[in-house]
Design a protein that fits this description.
single chain; about 450 residues; Rossmann fold; glycerate kinase, domain 1; 2 domains; six-stranded mixed beta sheet; 16 helices; about 40% helix; globular
Length: about 450
């Protein structure tokens, strides 16, 4: 393993470690329930997301040691392959990013359990990225197939995740604060622990905010569909009809701040992309690099972001003052797939291939991009990486990046170079991680 590969992968590992639920869940539970105020009655644990199962494991372990009088039960939904061991909390694996029947059945069970809460009970919601599609419980008149078609249409349109979630909130009986609405109607206290994979880290945006007040409206959802030219040919009639009824006030809006007056509802963001970027920056500093954090809110078409960051790297190269530089960033790019193109890979690998192609004149560049949940798009890799040695190998094999980009086959390109990042499910999720090394 080359020095650059080691540093790239260790920086990614540092970013993951600071978002590990086994470490952060106990720390936050001790703050939310300080000594003397531990739960002493029914404590319902629900959740959804790629990190939710590992969050449940950490919570159950902590509760068994620190809450001797609490009665734990619950259901948590996670993506297939992201399970974690529990004994009191049921873990259900379901489809992501396109919802399936397993997710709908699990969401229905969560809704039933929350509807049985009583005054004095505590609801703890464990929420992380991926929860929007896993918590699929459509409003009356909308089928799971209608939700699946809507999600697929939004994915192919290239709509940013924030816009996708505005639409999904207004089709759901759970998202957009509706889970908290049900709990407070029963007189329960709500404590939501959130691992953020969204830019800005707003509770309303993390997994579409099942326990948070929502800022968006039915009209916003219709405007998003119109913006991406998603009409009756792409979106089921039941979905369009429901959104129209929402605009006219025939069905209730999502939860608003005014609905939370005199209630016990708290949302705690316990891990963020920026904290992970800071951890990676601290690591590369020990390796002799001067870190530059570009921010955790970088979005846009993956290929465009790759070109932009190649230009940014060019501004730092050759390195000034004899210092090696590490450019570190997060955020979630999008990939728009044309009709007739299948594509292989995901937004991180696509960004990296674009960066690779656009930086052929920069001889001292190495880079890695990976999804912190361990799965980047359609395949089983977290992302990919390259170094000057990988570029030389690509040249020797006659691999032409533009051909792979045109087919959105970033996976195929990096697989031939043995330059995929493969971690398996990490059981956390704080959005995408990108790092560019510019060696002196």
């Amino acid at each position: 393993m080359s020095q650059q590969e080691t540093i790239l992968k260790n920086a990614f590992a540092a970013a993951l470690a600071v978002a590990d639920p086994k470490k952060i869940i106990p720390a936050y539970l001790s703050k939310i329930f300080p000594l003397g105020s531990e739960p002493s009655g029914k404590c319902l644990i629900v959740g959804a997301g790629k990190a939710s199962a590992s969050m449940a494991t950490a919570l159950e372990s902590y509760a068994n040691s620190h809450w001797p009088h609490a009665v734990l039960e619950g259901v948590v939904l996670t993506r297939y392959g992201h399970n974690s061991s529990t004994s009191q909390i049921q873990i259900i694996e379901a489809g992501h990013p396109v919802p399936d029947q397993a997710g709908m059945d699990g969401a229905q069970e969560i809704y039933r359990l929350v509807g049985e809460l009583q005054a004095g009970d505590i609801l703890i919601a464990l929420i992380s990225g991926g929860g929007s599609s896993l918590l699929t419980l459509p409003q009356a008149g909308i089928s799971i197939e209608d939700m699946r078609k809507t999600t697929e249409a939004l994915l192919r349109s290239g709509a940013p995740i924030e816009e996708m979630n505005v639409v999904r909130k207004h089709l759901s009986a759970i998202l957009g604060g509706n889970l908290a609405r049900l709990a407070i109607a029963r007189g329960a206290r709500v404590e939501a622990l959130l691992i953020s994979d969204v830019t800005g880290d707003a509770p309303a945006d993390i997994a579409s905010g099942p326990c948070a007040a929502d800022y968006s409206t039915y009209q916003n959802a219709l405007d998003i569909l119109a913006k991406h030219r998603l009409g009756a040919d792409a979106i089921p009639g039941s979905v369009l009809a429901h959104l129209q009824r929402g605009v006219t006030g025939e069905v209730p809006e999502t939860l608003k701040e005014s609905d939370l007056q005199n209630t016990e509802v708290s949302n705690h963001v316990i891990a963020t992309a920026y904290k992970s970027l800071e951890a990676a920056a601290e690591y590369v500093r020990t390796q002799g690099y001067e870190p530059v954090i570009l921010g955790d809110t970088i979005t846009g078409e993956a290929q465009d972001v790759g070109i932009e960051q190649a230009a940014l790297a060019r501004q730092h190269s050759p390195v000034k003052n004899g210092k090696s530089i590490a450019l570190i960033s997060g955020g979630e790019c999008t990939v728009t797939i044309p009709n007739g193109v299948k594509g292989r890979g995901g937004r991180c690998s696509e960004y990296l291939l674009s960066l690779f192609a656009a930086s052929s004149d920069i001889t001292n560049i190495s880079a890695l991009a990976a999804d912190t949940d361990g799965i980047d798009g359609s395949e089983k890799n977290a992302g990919a990486w390259f170094s000057p040695e990988i570029r030389q190998l690509a040249n020797e094999q006659g691999l032409i990046p533009s051909r792979y980009m045109n087919q959105h086959d970033c996976y195929g390109f990096f697989a031939q170079l043995d330059a995929l990042v493969e971690t398996g499910p990490t059981l956390t999720n704080v959005n995408d991680f990108r790092i560019i090394l510019l060696d002196n």
